[in-house]
Write a structure and sequence with these properties.
Elements: H1 2-5, H2 7-10, H3 17-21, E1 24-28, H4 34-45, E2 49-54, H5 59-68, E3 73-78, E4 95-98, H6 103-116, E5 120-128, E6 131-139, H7 165-183, E7 193-198, E8 209-212, H8 216-227, E9 232-236, H9 260-272, E10 275-279, E11 294-297, H10 302-315, E12 318-324, E13 328-334, H11 343-346, H12 349-352, H13 367-370, H14 377-395, E14 403-406
Parallel strand pairs: 1-2, 1-4, 2-3, 4-5, 8-9, 8-11, 9-10, 11-12
Antiparallel strand pairs: 5-6, 6-7, 12-13, 13-14
């Protein structure tokens, strides 16, 4: 059963799941969402052994982590990492993930990494002056250089700090990507991986949102919308949940054989207080999108992406389109008020798909069985987070940007 659940990532060339399954990860966190999101995604990836020092975790995300992977074993020590006497907690850890927001922990862990030759994956979200974003850096012995100053918090002791759930989704995905690379002996980024933009104001409107696709992107888009206070959501998807979805479609953990749209809507409503409604159907050329202010394209095929682009262009609807593979992804925003090209036009989808085949996309089985491509959780949560953040920027009047992410390049975002 475990092998079937992880099937899509086991298809990735050079993937060694044993190195993940047998690893023991130490995690230091703070009073925010970052550790909870990291734990949930790590569980889905098959990281089974984790010891966490943090004052608290989000109950819904922790419950999801335990349900999606019954082998997930996490020891939680409630509190803060403030003294090297606590180092014994991390005995036997293959790597340590530092998600804390105070300099004392940052410095203690960098010292531990230096003295014990233990990789330290450091990630945090921040708000400073009029900017907010995240930074991720992997420290291994020998990197004693001035850029380390960028990843040590200015606040020495635990204290209140800003927390943005959408940036946490993206940042935790980047940290998990780096964790996977450390454990598999792959190259990690030599630079600080970062993203920033102007601080966003809380949306004053309640847009009507349609999410097309309740797979991995749809799961994390729904979560990001909930964290953003955007709650009026319709989710369109015709498929049923299958076992191989569960390495990345985190909220569908016990729904094999049930509707993706119905299950995701129910979980978002129960856990996060959204008002999500399911529509169990294919998205077609005649699908009515007039009730919606924005469409999130979370589908898995070029044909439906083209139909979405053409309908949103014809009806003047904002379209946020995301696409991923096992190592990379992109977000393309279509804003009709700016005269943008559609995602289908900008990504050259018409050259990929024969025009005679641009019809509503139908299949006789669920999508993953029909198209068994390699897939992993990190790229999906990163791209989904950027999809939601791009829309928040648009709502806030900021210049939104198309995002191209590649986990195999030195500069990744």
């Amino acid at each position: 059963m475990l092998e079937e659940r992880l099937d899509r990532q086991l298809r990735i060339e050079g993937w060694d799941q044993r190195l993940l399954t047998e690893a023991r990860i130490g995690v230091v966190g703070d009073d925010d969402l970052l550790v909870s999101l990291y734990a949930m995604s790590s569980s889905a990836l098959g990281l089974n052994n984790m010891v966490v020092i943090a004052p608290r975790l989000d109950d819904s995300l922790l419950d999801t982590a335990r349900r999606i992977n019954p082998a997930f074993n996490m020891i939680l020590i409630e509190g803060y990492y403030t003294h090297p006497v606590m180092d014994d907690i991390f005995t036997g850890c293959t790597a340590i993930v530092d998600l804390s927001q105070y300099g004392l922990a940052n410095k203690l862990l960098l010292k531990k990494g230096f003295e014990q030759d233990t990789p330290i994956i450091r990630g945090f979200c921040y708000a400073q002056d009029d900017q907010e974003g995240f930074k991720v850096f992997t420290y291994v012995k020998g990197r004693e250089w001035q850029d380390l100053e960028q990843i040590v918090s200015r606040r020495n002791l635990p204290n209140d700090h800003s927390d943005d759930g959408v940036l946490d989704i993206i940042g935790s995905g980047v940290v998990l990507e780096q964790t996977k690379n450390v454990l598999m002996g792959r190259n990690v980024s030599e630079d600080v991986i970062g993203y920033n933009r102007k601080i966003l104001e809380t949306p004053r409107c309640d847009p009507r949102i349609c999410v097309v696709g309740a797979g991995a992107l749809g799961n994390f888009v729904g979560l990001g919308l909930a964290y953003s206070g955007l709650r009026t959501i319709t989710i369109i998807d015709p498929d049923l949940v299958e076992m191989t979805n569960l390495n990345r479609q985190v909220f569908l953990y016990d729904a094999i054989g049930l509707s993706k749209a119905e299950t995701l809507s129910e979980r978002l409503n129960r856990f996060f207080g959204t008002h999500a409604q399911p529509r169990v159907m294919y998205f077609r050329k005649d699908t009515d999108i007039s009730p919606y202010d924005v469409i999130f394209d979370c589908v898995d095929n070029f044909e439906t992406r083209i139909v979405l682009s053409e309908k949103c262009k014809d009806e003047g609807k904002v379209l946020i389109s995301g696409g991923t593979n096992s190592a990379a992804g992109q977000v393309v925003v279509f804003d009709p008020s700016q005269g943008d090209g559609t995602p289908a036009e900008l990504l050259g989808l018409y050259d990929i798909v024969d025009k005679r085949r641009i019809e509503p996309y139908r299949r006789d089985t669920v999508s993953c069985a029909y198209q068994a491509d390699p897939a992993v959780i990190m790229t999906n949560q990163i791209i989904a987070g950027f999809m939601v953040d791009s829309y928040r920027m648009l709502l806030g009047g900021q210049v939104r940007r198309n995002i191209f992410y590649n986990s195999t390049c030195g500069i990744r975002i």
